[in-house]
Amino acid sequence: MLIFIFKLLSRIPLIWLHRLGNWLGWLMYALPRERRMIRRHLNIAGLPHQPQDVLRVCQETVKSGLELPIAFFRQPEEISALFHEVHGWEYVEKALANQQGLLLITPHLGSYDLAGRFISERLPFPLTAMYKPPKIKAFDEIMQLGRVRGKGKTAPTNLLGVKQIIKALRNGEATIVLPDHVPSDHDGGVWVRFFGKPAYTMTLVGKLAQVQNVCPLFFVGERLANGRGFALHIAPLSGSLNGEKRHDAQIINHNVEQWVTRFPDQYLFAYNRFKNPTGEPYDLHDLSDE
Fold it and tell me: Which UniProt keywords are listed (predicted)?
C-alpha cells in the first residue's frame, strides 16, 4: 500500500506537490513543539525568526518530504528535467579528469535526495550514499527500492558501510554523506561548535577526505520558488582538513553554516542538531573554534 501511495505521489506535478507542502506547512506550524524547535535553532544561527520565517521553514520541510516519491520513483530523465540551473559542475569535471574519487557532502538542506539522484545520473560510475534504515520496515523497503536503482547504491551507517564507502572512493567512484546528522555512538563524533553552540559532530567526513586521491565537494539542491524546479550548487570545501578529528569536524561545520546562511528557509531546523547522544558532559574550553 505504501509503495502504491509513493508511486501515486510521484506522478503529481511538482507545482501541485509544493502547493500541498505550503498548506501542510501550516499544520506543522500549528504544532507547538516543532514551532519552538525551529524558532530556537533560528535564534542560535542568528537568523530572523519572525512567525513568517518559522512558517516558511515548516513549509519547505514538508516539501522536502513530499519530494521523496519523485526521487524514488520517477525516471532519471524526468528528474533531470526538474533541474533548470547547475552551478559549479566544472569542479566535478576537474575531479573526473584527475581520476579522483568524489566525496560529495550535503547538509539537510533543500532537496538533497533529488540533487543526489540528478548528480548520480550524470556520473560515469556508481554513487553510494550512506544510509540509516528507518525504524518502520515498510518505509525502509520503499527507500531501498527508490535509492538502489540506476547508478545508485546504499551503504549502512556502520563499520561495514564505512569500509564499503572507502573502497568505492579508492576505486574512483562517488559517495554522498550528510555531515549534520548527529552520530549515535561515542567513537563516531566529537564536540565542536555549530553556529557558536556545542554540537556533537560526525568525524566520518574528515576521515573519508583523507582517503588517497579524493576530492571533497559540497553541494545543495536549491528548491526554486513556485514549483519551478531546482538549482544545483556545487563548490569546493572551504578551509583545509588536516586529519585531526576535532579540527576537521569544525571545518565541516563552518562549511555547513555558510550553506545554511545562504538558504536558511530550506534547512531542516526541525531536526535537533544539538542533542547529546553520548549522555556525557563536555568541556566548553576544549571545543575547537577555528
Answer: Acyltransferase, Cell inner membrane, Cell membrane, Membrane, Transferase
